[in-house]
């Protein structure tokens, strides 16, 4: 007997469906952060430390002001977290080449090892979910997340829309890869990341 899979639910805006989506986001985030939380606890760190480690690792040479724009936290909160990470030898600071008043942030060797350890479980979890869901579902997932993010912060991810609509250029797959590797620099976060990248 042929196994007939149910199609998409056309009633996805009903209260029950929206509530279920909210709960799934909660449980997914809980499980996504569970193992990294245990690793962070070994150092006396929390999720605020994790976010700083991750974005400094992704964007070496990022300034404190650029990091503040991405994390959307107070300068006092970031100062406390950075102080701990610098004190524990996870992050190092150096003055800017053009503006010596700037503080440029990079992970130390110890910090890079910790970032890899924290990210590996999350990366494996996402890869497994993508593999099991398939390409079409992954594209839909990206679109849903993009529309959950505030509009002013979507610039960094806008290249996905170009790829999906076929406007990434006439390069076929290779052209799509090239576009996917580039970062749109619209919005607060995009501008911050472009500035950090220019100093590498």
Q: Which helices and strands occur, and which strands form pairs?
A:
Elements: H1 15-41, H2 47-58, E1 62-63, H3 64-71, H4 75-87, E2 91-95, E3 103-107, H5 109-133, H6 135-148, H7 159-165, H8 172-181, H9 187-198
Antiparallel strand pairs: 1-3, 2-3
Cα radius of gyration in angstroms: 20 Å
Strand content: 5-15%
Q: Return the CATH class of the largest domain.
A: Mainly Alpha
CATH superfamily of the largest domain: Winged helix-like DNA-binding domain superfamily/Winged helix DNA-binding domain
Which structural class do you get from the secondary structure elements? mainly alpha
The biggest beta sheet reads:
3 strands, antiparallel
What strand line-up does the widest sheet have? 1-3-2
Would you tell me which CATH topology of the largest domain applies? Arc Repressor Mutant, subunit A
Number of helices: 9
Instruction: Compute the separation of the termini in Å.
Output: 59 Å
The number of domains is 2
Order of helices and strands: HHEHHEEHHHHH
How much helix, percentage-wise, in residues? 55-70%
In one word, what is the shape?
elongated
Which parts are unreliable, with pLDDT below 50 for 5 consecutive residues or more?
162-186
Annotation, overall tally of beta strands: 3
Written overview of the protein:
- The protein is mainly alpha-helical and 200 residues long.
- It folds into two domains: 11-133, Arc Repressor Mutant, subunit A (Orthogonal Bundle), CATH 1.10.10.10; 135-187, no CATH class.
- The chain is 64% helix and 6% strand.
- The protein contains nine helices and three strands, in the order ααβααββααααα.
- It has helices at residues 15-41, 47-58, 64-71, 75-87, 109-133, 135-148, 159-165, 172-181, 187-198, and strands at residues 62-63, 91-95, 103-107.
- It has a three-stranded antiparallel beta sheet with strand order 1-3-2.
- α1 runs antiparallel to α5 (109-133) and α2 crosses α5 (109-133).
- The longest helix is centred in the first third of the chain and has 27 residues, at 15-41.
- It is elongated, with a radius of gyration of 20 Å.
- The model is unreliable at 162-186 (pLDDT under 50).
């Amino acid at each position: 007997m042929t196994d007939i899979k149910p199609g998409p639910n056309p009633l996805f805006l009903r209260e029950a469906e929206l509530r279920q989506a909210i709960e799934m986001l909660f449980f997914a985030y809980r499980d996504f952060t569970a193992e990294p939380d245990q690793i962070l606890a070994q150092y006396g760190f929390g999720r605020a430390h994790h976010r700083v480690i991750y974005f400094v690792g992704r964007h070496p040479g990022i300034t404190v002001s650029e990091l503040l724009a991405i994390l959307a936290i107070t300068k006092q909160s970031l100062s406390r977290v950075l102080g701990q990470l610098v004190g524990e030898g996870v992050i190092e600071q150096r003055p800017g080449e053009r503006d010596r008043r700037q503080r440029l942030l990079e992970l130390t060797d110890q910090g890079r090892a910790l970032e890899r350890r924290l990210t590996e479980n999350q990366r494996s979890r996402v890869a497994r979910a993508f593999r099991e869901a398939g390409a079409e579902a992954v594209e839909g997932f990206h679109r849903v997340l993009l529309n959950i993010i505030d509009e002013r912060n979507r610039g960094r991810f806008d290249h996905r829309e170009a790829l999906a609509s076929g406007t990434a250029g006439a390069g076929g797959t290779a052209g799509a890869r090239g576009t996917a590797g580039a970062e749109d620099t619209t919005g607060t976060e995009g501008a911050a990341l472009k500035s950090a990248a220019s100093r590498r």
